Amino acid sequence: PKPLAGRVALVTGAASGIGKAIATRLAAEGACVVIADLDLEKAQAAAAEIGNADVALGVAANVTDEKAIDEAIAAALLQFGGLDLVVNNAGLSISKPLLETTTADWDLQHDVMAKGSFLVSRAAAKVLIDQKLGGDIVYISSKNSIFAGPNNIAYSATKADQAHQVRLLAAELGDHGIRVNGINPDGVVRGSGIFAGGWGAKRAAVYGVPEEELGKYYAQRTLLKREVLPEHVANAVFVLCTSDLDHTTGLHIPVDAGVAAA
Ligand code: NAD
C-alpha cells in the first residue's frame, strides 16, 4: 500500500501554490484530502485536478471563521471517515515598512496566520484527541520566523507566532500521540499566489532585480544555488507525516536550499 493509504488530510489555503502542491503530494501518497480555501470554486477546481470525489474534496473555509473550520472538518469526517493530518498553510503577505504598516494590516496578517492556524489546530486537535489514533499537525511557517529582514514586520511576526505554536502544541498534544511540526520555506516564487499578487514586485524592488528574475535571484543566494518550488515544500510535509519520522515532534524543517550563516 501507499505510505499514506487510509489517512485523511485537511490542507488550508490549498487552492493555490504551496498548499495545492502539498495536497497533490499527500493524495499521490494515498491520503484523501480536503482542500480548504476562501473561494469554493477554486477549492473545487484544485480538488478536481487532484482526483475524484473519493480522493479529494474542495470546501470554502476562511480560517478566521470558526464555523467554517468546523464545517470543513465535518466534511472530512463525513466524506472520508476521519481526520489524521492537518496542514496550516493558508496565508497572505503584507510587505510594508514599519511606518507604513497600518493597524488593519497587522490585524489581518495576525487574524489569518496566527489566529487562523490556532483555530484550525484547536478544532482539529479536538477530533484527533477523541479519535485516539494520534495524528499530525504541520505548520507552513517561514524562514522569516527566525531571520529578520526589512519591510516585513507584520508577516514575519505572525510567522514567529506560528513557529511557537508548533513548540507549544508539540508539548501539549504529545500525550495523545499527536505530532506537531513546522516547515520553514523561503523564496518559493514560481507558483506562489503571494509572490504573484504584489509581494514579488516589492521584494524585487528591495533587491534591485527585475521581478521575472526573482526566482533566479533567490536561487543564487542559497547554499545549493537551487530555486525552491512548491513541490519541494510538499516533499518535506510528506516526509514529516510518514511513519519514518514518527519519533519527531516540535521540529522545523527549512526548505530554503540553504541559508548562509552571515
Ligand atoms: P498562495 O497565495 O499561492 O497560497 C495561499 C493560499 O491561502 C491562497 O490560496 C489563499 O486564497 C489562501 N488564503 C488566504 N487567506 C485565507 C484565509 N483567511 N482562509 C483560507 N485560505 C486563505 O501563496 P503561497 O506562497 O503558496 O503561500 C502558502 C503558505 O506558505 C503561506 O502561509 C505563506 O506564508 C507560506 N510561505 C511561503 C513562502 C514562499 O516563498 N512562497 C515562504 C515561506 C512561507
TrEMBL record:
Organism: Leifsonia williamsii
Entry protein name: Bifunctional aldolase/short-chain dehydrogenase
Superkingdom of the source species: Bacteria
Family of the protein in this entry: Belongs to the short-chain dehydrogenases/reductases (SDR) family.
